[in-house]
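Worked example (supplementary).
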Amino acid sequence: MEITKIIASASFISLLFSGCTPPRLEFSAFAQAGSGYAVAVDKLLTASGTAQVDSTSWTLVSERQSTGMDQKTYDAKNNQDTLRLTQITKLRQHARLLGQYFGLLESLSSSDAPERTKKAIEGVVSNLEKITNDFGPLAKGLSVIGQVAVDFKIRSELKDELDKRKDTIRKSLAIQEQLLLELKGDITHALTLSKNIQEETLVSGPLLSEHAAQLKDPEQWVSKRRTVLNTSIAIDELSAASVAATKMREAFEGLITGENTIGRVNSLLTDIEALLSIAESIKS
Amino acid sequence: MNQKEFLDAVRTLELELFSKDFNKWVNQQSDDEKKNIRNLRTEISTYRSQLETNKLKVLADMLDQLSPQLTKGIDDLTQAIDDMNNFVKTVELVEKIIGLVARIATLVAA
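After joint prediction of all chains, the assembly is encoded as:
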C-alpha cells in the first residue's frame, strides 16, 4: 500500500512539473521526421545540381548540332554550373547541420536512461536488502522515483533546448520552405529543357530521320523514349517538396505550443518518403 | 512584374530558343546569323542561371547566419546526452559495487 502511494506521488509530482512539456514520444517523432526531412532536402539539393548540369550539357549538345560550338560558349556555361554547384554545396552543409541537430534531439528523446536507471536502482535496493533487512517501503519505490526523475530531466532538457533554439529552428525551417520552392522551379525548368532537347535528339530525330542507320537499335530507342516521357511525372511530383516543407514548419509550431503533433508528423513522414523518391528519380 | 514572374518569363524564352521549331528556323540561317543566335542563347541561358543562383545565394547566406546557433545547439545536446549517460553509468557502477559488497557480506555471514 505504501509503495503504491510513493509511486503515485512520484507520478503526480512528475505530471505537475511537466504539465506543459510534450511527452518524449512526440519529441522523438518530431526529431525523427526532422532528421528525415534534412536528408530529403540534402538529396533534393544534389538532384537539383545534377538536373542543372545535365540541362546545360543538353543545351551544349543542341547548340553544337544547330549552330556549332566555340570555347567562349562552353566556358560561359561551365562557369555558371560551377557557381551553382558552389551554392548548392553551401546549402547542403546547412541541411547536414540541421540533420545533425535533429539526430541528437532524437537520441536524447529516445534515450533508454530512465529504464536503465530504474533497473540499476532496483539492483542496488535488492543487494542492500541482502546486507540488511532494515528497509522500508520507501526503498522499494526508489527505482520508480529514479525512473520518473530521469524521464523528467530528459523532457526538461528537450524543452529547454527547443525554448533556447526555437527562433533559430523556426527561421531555418521558413528559409528551407522558400528554398524548396526555388528548387522546385529550378529543377522543373532544368528537367523541361533537358526533356525537350532529349526528345528531339534521341526520340523524334532518329525516328523521323531519312537515314535508317539513325534507328539501328529499336529496343534502345523504346527505352529512351520511355525515360524521356517519364520526366514529366517527376516534374509533376515536385510539388510534394513544398508541401513537406510547410508540414515540417507546422509540426514544429505544434510541438512548441504543446499541440498533439503525432498525426502531423506521420503525414509528414509520407511526404518525406515521396521527396526522397523524387530526388532519387531525378538523379538517375 | 515581380521577380518570380520575370524569372519565369526568361525561362519560357530559353525554352522557346531551344525548341524544335526554333532550331528548324536556325538551320536555314547563314553561318554569321547562327553565331549571333548562339551568342544570344548563351546570354539568355547565362542570365537565367545567374538569376537562379543569386536566389540560392541569398538563401544560403541567410542559413549561414543561423549556423552558429545551430552548432551551439548541437554542442549543448551532445553535452546533455553525455551527462545523462554518465549519470546512468554512475548509478550502474554503484549497483555493481553494492552487489559485490552484498556478495562478500553473504560469504562472511556464511
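Two points are worth noting when inspecting this output. Chain A touches chain B through 70 residues (CB under 8 Å). Chain A has a mean pLDDT of 85.
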